[in-house]
Amino acid sequence: MIMNAVIVYYSMSGNSKLVAEAIAKRIGADTLELVPVKQYPDTGFKKYFWGGKSAIMGAKPALQPYSFNADKYDTVIIGSPVWASSFAPPLRTFIEEQREELRRMRKAAFVCFMGSGDQKALAKLTKALDADSLAAELALVEPKNKSGEAAKKIDDFCRRLTENEA
Ligand SMILES: Cc1cc2nc3c(=O)[nH]c(=O)nc-3n(C[C@H](O)[C@H](O)[C@H](O)COP(=O)(O)O)c2cc1C
Fold first, then answer.
1. Would you write out the chain's pLDDT as a tens digit for each of its 166 residues?
2. Which residue lies with its CA nearest to atom 16 of ligand 1?
3. Mutate to test the pocket of ligand 1, among 82, 118, 122, 125 (most ligand atoms within 8 A of CB)
4. Are 105 and 76 in contact, with CB atoms under 8 Å apart?
5. Comparing C-alpha atoms, which of 1, 73, 61, 62 is closest to residue 32?
6. Measured between alpha carbons, how far is 4 from 71 in angstroms, rounded to an integer?
7. Alpha-carbon distances, residue 73 vs 29, 110, 132 (angstroms)
8. 70 lines ligand 1 (CB under 6 A)
9. Which of 14, 41, 45, 141 is the most exposed place for a label (fewest CB within 10 A)?
C-alpha cells in the first residue's frame, strides 16, 4: 500500500515548517500549515508570555480558514514547536475541529524544541489525538540551526513511518 499522508503543522519561527517540508518531500505528503486568526507575538517578552500562557491554559485559538479533505489520507503527521512543555495551541484547535475525521487515521508527530519538554509535549499530543501510541515520533532541537543532525533523524522517522505501514 502506498501511504497517503498529510502533514498538519504550526510554526512560529520556521523550524517546524522546515521539518514539515523535508518530510513532505521525502515521503511525497501534502502539507497544511495552520495560521491563527490572531497571530501570537513573536518578539520580546510577549513571545514567551502569551504563547506559553495559551499552551498552559489549553487554549483553542480560532484558525484562518483551511481546507482539509480527510478522505484523501490514511496517515496524519502533526508538527509543532514545544511551548511550555506542551504542543502549540493551533494544533489543539485543529484536533478538536477534526476529531471524528482523525479517528480512523494512522497518526505520527514531530516537535521542535530548544532544550526540554519534548517528551511531555509528544505525550500530550498523543493524548489529545485519542491515540495509545504513535506510528512514529520525532523531536528535534532547533533544526534550522542544526540541519545536518536533523536530516538524519528526519530520515529515520520517515523510514519508521513507511516500515510500520500496516
Ligand atoms: C511560547 C513559547 C514557549 C516555548 N516553550 C519551550 C519549552 O517549554 N521547551 C523548549 O525546549 N523550547 C520552548 N520554546 C522554544 C521552541 O519550542 C523552539 O524554538 C522551536 O524550535 C520553535 O519552532 P518553530 O520555529 O516551528 O516555531 C518555546 C517557544 C515559545 C515561542
1. 568 999 999 999 999 999 999 999 999 999 999 999 999 999 999 999 999 999 999 999 999 999 999 999 999 999 999 999 999 999 999 999 999 999 999 999 999 999 999 999 999 999 999 999 999 999 999 999 987 889 999 999 999 998 866 5
2. 113
3. 82
4. yes
5. 73
6. 10
7. 9, 18, 20
8. no
9. 45
Q: pTM higher than 0.85 for the full model?
A: yes
Residue type, 41: P
Which residue has its alpha carbon closest to ligand 1 atom 3? 83
**What is the grid cell recorded at 93?**
484547535
Q: Where is 84: in which H helix or E strand? A: none
CA distance 42 to 143: 18
Report how far residue 149's alpha carbon sits from residue 142's, in angstroms, rounded to the nearest whole number. 10
CA distance linking residue 158 with residue 139, whole number of Å: 13
Cell of 39: 497571530
Atom of ligand 1 nearest to the CA of 13: 25
Question: Are 37 and 27 in contact, with CB atoms under 8 Å apart?
Answer: no
